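== Folding task for one protein ==

=== Format: two labelled lines per protein ===

==== Paired sequence and structure tokens ====
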Amino acid sequence: MKLIGNVQLVAGNATMIAGIRMLLKEEGIETEANPDIYIREYNSFGVDEARELAAKASSRAVGSTGRIFVIVTPNMTGEAQNALLKTLEEPSGDARFFIVVPSPLMLLPTLRSRAQHLELENGSQAPLVDATAFLKAKPETRLEMLKPLLEKDDDDKKDLSGIIAFLSELERELAVNAKPDPERLEPIYRARKYVADKGSLTKALLEQVALLI
């Protein structure tokens, strides 16, 4: 697989790191003990993390292959994405970025349009709830189907990546199989925006999705 441009989007979670390392090795880049490779996992990637990444990206590479940043997160705020745009559009030197999220659909169109979308095997997280079956089910059944996502309804333990993967798959199904309706999609957007917040009422957000879409 040939890498094009300096920004790559990957659908999945931390298990995709091995595949990214393999791609870099195919390009002749050593991935072990390489000070120019920066790999970080975040529970949530906000504007402070975006600024930190921009600062690191502006530093000079030690070797000749440029700096490579692999960012893995289940949630990247809109403010962080906007803060990253200039860094991604005008990278310092030969800096390259791999952004790994549950679904590229969760990112702003302006960011997605600047990136190559990579399809890597053995890493994409399958949604815990089948979006197609969810949409076909009655509201009371949908509430039952949400239980796998709510078993860890604790800010420190909840499976944020699984929840966002489900919401993104739900949005994709609605876009493909139904006429676009902003009001119908609003509960999904709201849940995805707030579910990563400390103290967010995950159960209430997902129940709104079940009852209102």
Q: What stands out?
A: Strands lie at 7-11, 37-41, 68-72, 96-101, 116-118. The radius of gyration is 18 Å. The chain has two domains: 7-118, 131-212.
